[in-house]
Amino acid sequence: MKTLLHICCAPCANMCIDTLRQEGQEVTGFWYNPNIHPFTEYRSRRNCLRDYAVSIALPLVERNDYGLRPFVRAVADDIANRCVKCYEMRLMTAAEYAAANGYDAFTSSLFISPYQKHELMKEVAEQAADTYHVRFLYRDFRPYFKQGQERARELGFYMQKYCGCVFSEEERYLKASKIIP
């Protein structure tokens, strides 16, 4: 089965790719992350993924839009609940691409993170599948998170310190300094 794997970063993707390949999936990576800011962070994550994709012969499709303005416009009215808009932007785009380009299914490396809102992501992905008439291949990759992070360190991947958006970066620093927003 041809599966499009939306990838947020190489550290989160490595075990997802391995798992899907072991299942016999024909995996293509899909980079679309308009939420990642600043640009230097976006570029570091993208470039690490590019190098990893080459090293494991993973076809990689890039929708390489640095989306600061569209992302901020989408979440500005409700920053506290920004994650749903972020998931919608990425998973709807992945589903649309999968449907338009002959993939049997799509999924996301986001499903490996214990820090993401798993059920909300799943709900958004199911909506995207319905909207674009393509199968959402649900996998709970969270049991592989620690192993994937260890492998990423062994491989010398760029390891990010926050989810990706400027607001999650702010929260990281506020928590570290014990300032509550």
Explain how this protein is built:
By secondary structure, this protein is of the alpha/beta class. The protein has a single domain (2-176), classed as HUPs (Rossmann fold, 3-Layer(aba) Sandwich), CATH 3.40.50. Helices cover 51% and strands 12% of the residues. It has seven helices and five strands, in the order βαβαβααβαβαα. It has helices at residues 10-22, 39-55, 68-75, 82-100, 118-132, 145-154, 166-176, and strands at residues 2-7, 26-31, 60-62, 105-108, 135-136. A five-stranded parallel β-sheet has the order 3-2-1-4-5, sandwiched between helices. Strand 2 (26-31), helix 2 and strand 3 form a beta-alpha-beta unit. Helix 4 runs parallel beside helix 5. The protein is globular. The model has no long low-confidence stretch (mean pLDDT 91).
